[in-house]
Amino acid sequence: MTNQPATSGSTLAAVPKTQEHTQTVEGRKALMKDIHVKWNKFSEQEVDALKSNEDLVDQLVTKYGLAKDAAQRDADTLRAGRNI
């Protein structure tokens, strides 16, 4: 026998989602939608795959041929303080 408590399945399912978590998820969805609307060369899958603000800038440089400083400025303007 061990002193470990018996567990069945994941304990994550038992943790209720907080209002803050819900707002974060909704905020990310809204940001991703805004990115897709503004830069429609991105597929939904490409937008969903973005992992960071820097990743967005790199993709703008690659996909739209923007200079990095212009891509950074445009991304910052659209994000308006929101982070990916």
Strand fraction: under 5%
**What letter string, H or E per element, gives the SSE order?**
HHHH
Unreliable sequence segments: none
Q: Count every helix, treating DSSP H or I runs of 4 or more residues as helices.
A: 4
Which structural class fits the helix and strand makeup? mainly alpha
| Distance between the amino and carboxyl termini | 46 Å
The helix content, as a percent range, equals 55-70%
Overall shape: elongated
Provide the gyration radius in Å: 19 Å
Mean pLDDT: 86
The main β sheet shows up as: none
E-strand count? 0
Characterization of the model:
It contains four helices and no strands. With 84 residues, the protein is mostly helical. The model has no long low-confidence stretch (mean pLDDT 86). It has a domain at 41-84. 10% of the residues are buried.
SSE order and pairing:
Elements: H1 19-38, H2 44-49, H3 53-64, H4 68-79
In short:
By secondary structure, the protein is mostly helical. It contains 4 helices and no strands. Helix 3 (53-64) crosses helix 4 (68-79).
Considering the chains and any ligands shown, give keywords for the structure.
84 residues; mainly alpha; elongated
